[in-house]
Design goal:
globular, four-stranded antiparallel β-sheet, single chain, 5 helices, about 220 residues, 11 strands
């Protein structure tokens, strides 16, 4: 099962098209085998297992604690943090995967996320400690398709922005929040992304966040 899931995720990465505007990114489709995705949706932990992140209407459940993670989610975590997947992602974006001495350039951390109505996050590029950001959408159906992450372009030289008539951040593209999809991008100074405020009737936005961190930062 592990090898089949790993092959599916790697295939989703390789099938994705790298877009360069407003920064390098790719939209992932059919990330998991269909029956595995159905099992993941059925096995989502209850809200009581999550903890507030302390800053917003977001609840998180890290998957690094072996005593707290069911076997299926542990397998998913092992797939997402595998060197095989990291190497495939690096090759897809033409990034280095290892230091000169052979050590991996990054280490992965996987977290289940519940974004509640009222959640939002302003455009930001992500911490410089991060190497690659990957988020898998856990949508039950197409009804939440407008809740996807938005990509922005920084436009500091727009005259209208300096007099308050236009924003410095220009929305460029929003990923559809659809079942068995997601996105991935290397973290750069200009990788601005965010989520518009979830409406009271938006429901819970459930995702699986997989982040690669630089090991030397």
């Amino acid at each position: 099962m592990h090898d089949r899931i790993l092959a599916s995720v790697i295939d989703a990465v390789r099938r994705s098209v790298v877009q360069r505007t407003p920064f390098a990114h790719a939209y992932l489709e059919q990330v998991w085998p269909a029956e595995v995705y159905a099992r993941l949706m059925a096995a989502l932990p209850p809200a009581s297992r999550y903890r507030d992140d302390g800053r917003s209407c977001r609840q998180v459940l890290p998957l690094h604690d072996e005593t707290m993670v069911e076997p299926l989610w542990a397998m998913v975590r092992d797939v997402l943090t595998s060197t095989e997947l990291h190497s495939a992602v690096c090759a897809h974006f033409d990034l280095r995967a290892r230091h000169a001495d052979g050590r991996p350039v990054s280490a992965a951390r996987t977290v289940l996320v519940r974004d509640l109505p009222g959640y939002w996050i302003e455009p930001h590029p992500d911490s410089r400690a991060k190497h690659i950001t990957m988020q898998c959408y856990l949508a039950a159906d197409m009804s939440q398709h407008t809740l996807g992450t938005m990509l922005y372009q920084l436009r500091p030289f727009r005259p209208a922005a300096w007099i308050g008539r236009a924003p410095f951040m220009l929305p460029v593209h929003r990923f559809p929040f659809t079942p068995n999809s997601g996105y991935i991008f290397p973290v750069r100074w200009n990788s601005f992304h965010g989520v518009e405020r979830l409406a009271p009737d938006a429901g819970v936005r459930q995702t699986l966040m997989n982040t690669y961190y630089w090991t030397d930062r």
